């Protein structure tokens, strides 16, 4: 297969679809997404059956438990996927929104308004729900999407995409608004990354190797995060019951998501570290700690230098003691990935120092890092979490999928 020709053709059709979407009324886009959600619900049995084929194939290949959890679909997850698409239809449309306006001394009226980015390529692994989430967000924000899913979710992605597009088309939206690359050949990713001028932005969602490849090879702007090395810091003033509840949830609710805590930091002055560590082990988590942690919890294994820089995406947690909030912030600055970090404390002044001093896209106080999710932030489904400093940061939803242009209205002015 000539993958460059394939991607060029898909991009040309996506461009035409994006131009149609950009001028489409909010109600029309919302109606299309609601129809897409209904079509996904109607196809639930077919989607679950396709997912079962994927699960059987990758389980035989030895995929990890965390990755299997990301891939797995059942009727409840399909229903949640459809609900997420419908929820996007109910969000405020950012396209055409006036960001700011003013009148220049020349009398020119100036307005900055939000506009779609254009054609967005999404390269993802494992999670088939990205097919629906990314497609819905792109459509509502007036963009066309080119989706390239991983081979492990091949059948699931195809079933979800077919249902979504059937619904969009039934409501009069362009069929090419959401396209799925028909091959799982890795060369197709390279073709997308080289498609400067045809694809306007690439969003990678997947493991470290995928994101690293995209960032290294792309000739197209990239919106991504490389790692989710997230920290939960238990301060001396933390309530012990709250600390146990939050830390166990932050690690163990779903270990394979990018918002899971990977390192626990404990203030040396915290009065109840032993019960906290015991609760973590009792939850079924493997604990890897510094010498002080291992002395308090005999079931802990000694942590190596690499543990502080590892995104486990599994039931494994590294833990160490630090000298107060300054020690916690120093550790995060050295080992963190600028994704999500949390402090647990009853001391507001200490919390404010942490919130201001930690340079991450999401910084939390007395909450589980598992809340690092666009849906939990009221943004609807998210296309990803960005840890960069340009364009968009944190959960990227509708607003993050727009740029802006200047509208300038004059009354005959000519510049001197």
How would you portray this structure in words?
Helix 14 (348-357) links the parallel strand 12 and strand 13 (362-365). The protein is built from 14 helices and 16 strands. The chain has helices at 3-22, 26-42, 44-60, 65-71, 75-89, 129-140, 154-170, 186-193, 208-217, 240-252, 273-282, 291-296, 324-335, 348-357; strands at residues 98-103, 109-116, 119-124, 144-148, 178-180, 201-205, 230-234, 261-267, 286-289, 301-302, 316-322, 340-344, 362-365, 384-386, 394-396, 402-409. The model has no long low-confidence stretch (mean pLDDT 95). The protein is of the alpha/beta class and 416 residues long. The termini are far apart. The protein folds into 2 domains: 3-223 and 391-409, Aldehyde Dehydrogenase, Chain A, domain 1, CATH 3.40.605; 230-371, Aldehyde Dehydrogenase, Chain A, domain 2 (3-Layer(aba) Sandwich).
Descriptive labels:
single chain; 416 residues; alpha/beta; Aldehyde Dehydrogenase, Chain A, domain 1; Aldehyde Dehydrogenase, Chain A, domain 2; 2 domains; 7-stranded parallel sheet; 4-stranded parallel sheet; 14 helices; 16 strands
Entry summary:
With 416 residues, this protein is of the alpha/beta class. The protein contains 14 helices and 16 strands.
Which second-level CATH architecture of the largest domain applies? 3-Layer(aba) Sandwich
CATH topology (fold) name of the largest domain: Aldehyde Dehydrogenase, Chain A, domain 1
Overall morphology: globular
The CATH superfamily of the largest domain is known as Aldehyde Dehydrogenase, Chain A, domain 1
Order of helices and strands: HHHHHEEEHEHEHEHEHEHEHEEHEHEEEE
Total number of distinct structural domains: 2
Low-confidence stretches: none
Helical percent range?
40-55%
